[in-house]
Amino acid sequence: MATLILDIALLVLCFLVCAIDIFKREIYNLYTVLLFLVALIYNIHSPLDIMFSLSVCIVISILLFIFSIWSGGDSKLLIALTPFFAPEQLLDFYVATLFSGGVLSLIYIVKYRVILNKSIESGLPYGVAIIFGAHLSLYFSQGLTIYS
């Protein structure tokens, strides 16, 4: 029963993050903190694995933020989802996120350049790609009960 509640909370939070990121291009801190807490409560991996994964992810997120590759909200979202992944799964998570970002980019290029015939000025809602990348990686690793 507790797992079902966590699954529902995870899916609702992910939906809210995606919807707000698409329409407002913001990722609220409240949702990232709640996602982080859900990830910690799941407690899939050992605390040492979680700490190592968080350390790697924090370094990568800070570098991506410093070099203006993405915003602070995207960095916080990536860090919030990291406890779901053991160190050996991080590469899968990052590759799935990059793949999702590529698909998202293609969708936005087709939408704005081909269909609407105007330029993309507001950037991509990369939080959507991070969420989809996390779920894609968790699905293929069957890391959560909703994917087992």
Could you explain the architecture of this structure?
The protein has one domain (2-147). It has helices at residues 2-24, 29-42, 47-66, 72-81, 90-115, 126-141. It has six helices and no strands. Helix content is 74%, strand content 0%. The protein is globular and about 50 Å long. The mean pLDDT is 90. It is mainly α and 148 residues long.
Main attributes of the structure:
148 residues; 6 helices; globular
Strand content: under 5%
Helical amount among residues, as a percent range? Answer: over 70%
Main pleated-sheet profile? none
Average of pLDDT = 90
H/E series: HHHHHH
Shape, per Cα inertia axes: globular
What's the gist of this structure?
This protein is mostly helical and 148 residues long. The protein has helices spanning 2-24, 29-42, 47-66, 72-81, 90-115, 126-141. The longest helix has 26 residues, at 90-115.
